[in-house]
Amino acid sequence: MDYESGNGSQFSFRTVESPPDEHGRVSEYTSVSAYVDNVAYTGKLDQHPDEVDEGELLNSLEPVPVECIHPLFQQEFTKAPPYDPEVHYLKSPSFTYDDCQPGKTFVAECVLNEVKALELIRKHPHPNLVKYYGCVVRDGRITALCLHRYPDTMVDYAYCGISGARASMFAYNIENGIHHLHSLGLAHNDINESNICVDEHEQAVIVDFDSCLPFGEPLMKGTSACADLDAWVSSKENDLDYGLTTIEEFLPVETRKQKADAEAEMADELSS
Question: What is the pTM of this model?
Fold first, then answer.
């Protein structure tokens, strides 16, 4: 559950499983993530998100150690231009309470990996990969990524109704974007309908590169690692076998498996 207050503060509630205790027991809690005056806060509550009142919420918040979620800016990276809300979307790190404990840098490492991938894409752009403008920097650390603001997500677009022809075009766009990304030696590793936007020309654009890594690198996050126990490293197969199949199942298009089955059936008929 996410909401924004009247003064622009942003709050996110997520039900999270605590790590197993010494007896292997797992409990759930509500993790609170917040940005107030562009400063990150986190909190932990025992109540369900729907049961939290404003007083409890505010009392639970504590500042996030910057090193947990904001990596150091490196000189070879690009600094973002002045923010234009009509053009730019600022992507701030997402995190849970457990991510923000002293000494933990998992989120910061994910941000750093995403910046490295986006910097390479910026040098070798493609219309079906997100447009990246640079890093928002404060006190020498990356606080947000400045990306192009797209008018729609594919999920919202499809919710309003989508023709078979348009769905096929989206699938074609996504596959083209994947092949270009692979030509750079990178795999996205988290291709799914939630990570696709639609641009001003009604073309599908792949976004969310926080799981993107060079081939063979151990995965840090991404649905492919959860879906296939063999998919613990960055690979083309994560995008082409799992990712594209996920897209095809979401869109009203003839899947590659259906095409292959039809072709095999036709071949059998011709040979008999």
Answer: 0.85
Asked if 231 and 244 sit in the same domain, the reply is yes
* DSSP secondary structure of 229-256: TT--B--HHIIIIIIHHHHHHHTTS--H
H/E stretch holding 141 reads strand 141-148
- Please give the single-letter amino acid code of residue 47: Q
* Structural domain boundaries, residue 125: 66-149
Q: At 163, is the secondary structure helix, strand, or coil?
A: coil
What's 193's DSSP letter? G
Question: Which of 84, 119, 149 finishes a domain?
Answer: 149
Residue pair 37/64 in contact (Cβ under 8 Å)? The answer is no
Do residues 91 and 145 make contact, with C-beta atoms less than 8 angstroms apart? yes
188 CB-near residues (< 8 Å, 6+ apart): 178, 181, 195, 206, 209, 211, 212, 238, 239, 243
Task: Give yes or no for a contact between 63 and 9, defined as CB atoms under 8 angstroms apart.
Answer: no
- Residue-wise pLDDT for 18-64, tens only, equals 777 778 777 788 888 999 888 999 998 887 767 777 777 778 899 99
